What we know:
With 417 residues, the protein is of the alpha+beta class.
Amino acid sequence: MLDDTAMNERDEVLFAQQQVVRLQALLEASRHIHSTIALDEVLNTVLKIVVRELELTGAFFTHFPNTYGDVPQELSLPDRDAIGQAPFAREGDTALWTSFPLHDKTGSAFTELVVIRPAERTLTLDELDFIESLAIQASVAIENARFHERTVQWQRVESDMASARLVQRSLLPQEMPQIPGYRMAMRSVTCYEVGGDYLDIVPMASGQTMIVVADVAGKGLASALVGTSFRSAFRAMVNSGISLVEIATRMNLLHFHEGEQSRRRYVTAFFLQLDPRTNTMEVVNAGHNPAFLISANGPGSEAALIRKISASGTPVGLLPFSTYQAERFSLTDGTRLLLYTDGLTEVFRTGHNGESDEEFGEDRLLSTFLDCPATTPEQVLDTVWSTLDSFGDQEQSDDMTALVLMRQAAGEDGVDR
């Protein structure tokens, strides 16, 4: 017979062997759990390991938060409906059910692993310890899978937004039209991938040119979608033969009646119809920023005549009964016009000594445009943007769009006008 010492040694060996076997089983289970990054596969793998390794009746996860995409709300093995028909379930014998919470990296429980044992036996301490250890591994694997799903979804969103940005950029004028006696340049920089600023230049069959600079309320994708709808309606009306006031009025009614969401995304717009044959332009300002028109004050005068073309009506889509008025201007040699969205005036720099942040503002923009020595529209825009860059010390907070129109002086391009 074995003495007490030998029996203790044998028991220690058996215990050590059991620990090794249990550790090997846990390592193998962990390998299977971490072998996939798909969330539903992770959940199914955990359930299969629990049921098959411990010969249980079934297992399932309680309500699983559907936070990162289309993942199963609850899984069971065997089928949970079948479990619900078992005698012990009808009798409410909760002793047959044991739950193990799964925690995320913050320590918050996000679901529970519920195991169902056969009625004829109880779970041993080793089995309970195995399931607890498995639950910890499952928590890590599920967190990784959720992060992967979120990453994949975000990459898809980024890809879609990049495509949307390319589409929106393609809707901007790709080149300036050749208008005798005039030069134009435009620039548009969105705050996010896509934006709510809209600029369009449409040559008309009559020889005139229609120009619009608009700003949809808000920023981002929703505003970009509204801007695209605005563009389609505007282009459909340009060559219909109706007046500029009628275009603004119809655009307003159309936008207003598209529904509540569209009304929240109202549009400030500056409509301009240029006639190079008479060197005149007709404009309608629908709630937009005032345009700056600078021209010589009569023949032989060096003093500049500065006009601010302010709004004659409310933004497009804001009210159903808005009325608009058109203004007509003659464009003398050397006349310059600046159309812009409020992203240019709303550039900020940090205040000092407790002062609030300072805005670039309308007056600074007008002064920059007035004092700009540039002789081409492109150079004017370069000057405006460099001035804004020098002034601001904060990230761009709004879309920025501007267009410069200049009438060339007589003989500047070799043509006597």
